Input
Amino acid sequence: MLKYGQIQINNQLNFQKIKKKRKYYFSIHLSKMQSDDNQTVSSSSKNVVGRPESIVWDHFHKRSIDKSRGHFSATCHYCEKQYTRGKPDILEDHLTSECAFCPIEIRNEFLEIVANRTVENKKKTKKTKLDPKQSALSNFMESTKLTDTRRDAINSALGRFFVTCSIPFAVADHPFFIEFCKQLRPAYDPPCRTTISTNILHSEAAIITIKIQKELQSEENITIALDGWTDPGNRQLYNFILMTPNRHEYLWAIEDVSSESITGEFLANYIEKIINIIGQNKIAGLVTDGAGNCKVARKIIGEKYPRIITMWCIAHHINLISKDICRHQFAINTINKCQVLVTFFLRSHQGMSALRESINELKIKGGGIKTSTKTRWSTIYDCCESIVRLRSAFEDVSI
Output
């Protein structure tokens, strides 16, 4: 019994020694793991995960968005336009085509970036079902892979076609248009309407802007012209145009000033910023209409920059002169009689049909009968001129 009890005591002592050794090795292993974790954290803190931040953020005030990790709102340093969620592509487009106060060096830098931007076709959320009778790509011998240069050239030409011909961007997603492109070049995947209206459009605009700026560098005696109007969406818009002695016109900016009070001081401040960007020595004239705020703006600019000649638009002078002429009783009677004649033929389908046949038979050139509106003062002349030109056709019509 004593021998057996001694054995139990020895076993317990050995077990305690093994337990202490296990705790010792475990503590060593744990400290090693913690040191490895610390090294991993320190190394990961040195190497930032994700793509580097775009340089365009250097020109915007950046503020984090609540409940949206990794996304920021942006406010332009130069014109203070705000974006609830700033994206590099959108911010680059703002500096190149929207911000009228962006310094010329910065604008040129981002124009090169936007012009050389790679156009990637965005995936469509909804797949378009094509005609099941459409030929397969394997039926075409020329269905080879397009190079990036060739694809970008086709996209550029497609974008110019849509814009210059006023084609709705939604046509790009139409099944027949996609089939048409495939019939022409099976290897070409036409871009969706989102890609055309954003990447392709902004890239083409940047290329044109670079070309315009190169032409303006050699120009002197530039005239600034501006005008304001209200669009169908009830937004107050102002455009600023640069005109050269060779009568070349370049659109500098179109600004939505609906939230501003359009005073003479406001317009003068805007014009002065454009003058400083282009260069005071290159500006020779300023042309506006006869509105009160424009008169004040011309006076401020003329006093601050004596070299710049401020003038009232001659077209608005002619407009006022023509209005005074049209107030004469003879002019009123003539316009009313012409309007009665135009209204009759516009409301009579048979009369208009007979008038068209008479115009074709007599081979009268210049189009049909013209209408007049009060907001387009030149249409009064067009209306009266069409009545005189179509006199023989009116006399030939019998209803």
